[in-house]
Amino acid sequence: MTSTIGKKCLVTGGGGFLGKAIVQRLIGRGDKVRSFSRKFYPDLKEMGVEQVPGDLSDARSVIKAVTGMDTVYHVAAKPGVWGKYADFYRTNAQGTNNIIDACRCSRVSAFVHTSSPSVVFDGSSMEGVDESAPYPASYCAHYPRTKAMAEQAVVSAARNGLPAIILRPHLIWGPGDNHLVPRILARANKLRQVGGGENRVDTIYIDNAAEAHINAEEALRNTPALSGNIYFISQDDPIRLWDMVNRILAAGGYPQITGTVSTRAAWVAGALLELIYKTLGIRGEPIMTRFVAKELATSHWFDISAAKRDLGYRPKISTAEGLERLSGWLKEKGLIYHYE
């Protein structure tokens, strides 16, 4: 087997939730790590991580970040369900193309790209689907559309010689989360269950997501024929979406959701809010969009057999243990809400 210890590794978005978790594992195994982000992170400096500032849309900055690296983990992206298409395209599509070009010039020997299951979401339930699921004919949000562009660019690059693997983690959460958990807790008193509540989804605990990326690099080096492959990764434990939301609320000290709204009503509200925000040029994000309404009311869980077989991936931290860790972290940070 090819040794991956002591490599020079770049993590784009190394100061972010997933990026930092990957950085910590790389340092732990003895790699020299560089992070490429738009801002400076003091905690990365404390870990001895070299930081190169820049934007993914700036090809020169990207080349500077990639030069001299053996491995690149491309984690950085513009997430979200609302915003200007140009902003999503510049970071997710153009930015990924810049990373690919720089990797080719620097002859990077392993490239792990973080994608999303949303690239194949067509608005209907996905239950136990595998990587053969096709891209939909259209998207109702810019994030999945531009992430699909990025994913296809990586597949094309792999076919033309770049050693690359693509991972699709779904709903990453855990201690340090700056996206999913905070959004749920911030809206705790306003949340309403969309639909009947029986729809199941995959999630993935942060440690498991980071470990899967390390597994992917090691598998790619040991089995080059895996290059170009796409893999769903998850807890391998589909859970009812609203049960998961309630368990996250409980971890934060909040009561469970009691109100409900029909899927149709949520979708219509989302469509109207999108129209209003676009027409009036309102800044900020609508509390509901068509994409979010569909995501909250449908099932989306995946067959991760390929990741188990090819990458040796197994989720080591269960959902129950992860929730305990999340609750402990929220308490440590003083983020527990005490209600009467």
Task: Give an overview in words.
It contains 12 helices and 15 strands. It has 340 residues and is α/β, with parallel strands linked by helices. Helix 3 (59-66) packs across helix 4 (85-106) and helix 9 runs antiparallel to helix 10. It starts with 7 loop residues before the first strand and ends in an 8-residue tail after the last helix.
The gist of it:
The chain is 43% helix and 16% strand.
Low-confidence stretches: none
Mean pLDDT: 94
Tally of contiguous helical segments: 12
Q: Architecture of the domain at 8-177 and 202-238 and 300-317 in CATH? A: 3-Layer(aba) Sandwich
Q: Sketch the topology as an H/E string, one letter per element.
A: EHEHEHEHEEHEEHEEEHEEHEHHEHH
The rounded distance between the terminal residues' Cα atoms is: 58 Å
Major sheet: 7 strands, parallel
CATH class bucket of the domain at 8-177 and 202-238 and 300-317? Alpha Beta
Shape assignment: globular
Number of strands: 15
What is the strand content? 15-25%
Please tell me how large the radius of gyration is.
20 Å
The CATH H-level superfamily of the domain at 8-177 and 202-238 and 300-317 is: NAD(P)-binding Rossmann-like Domain
Report the helical percentage: 40-55%
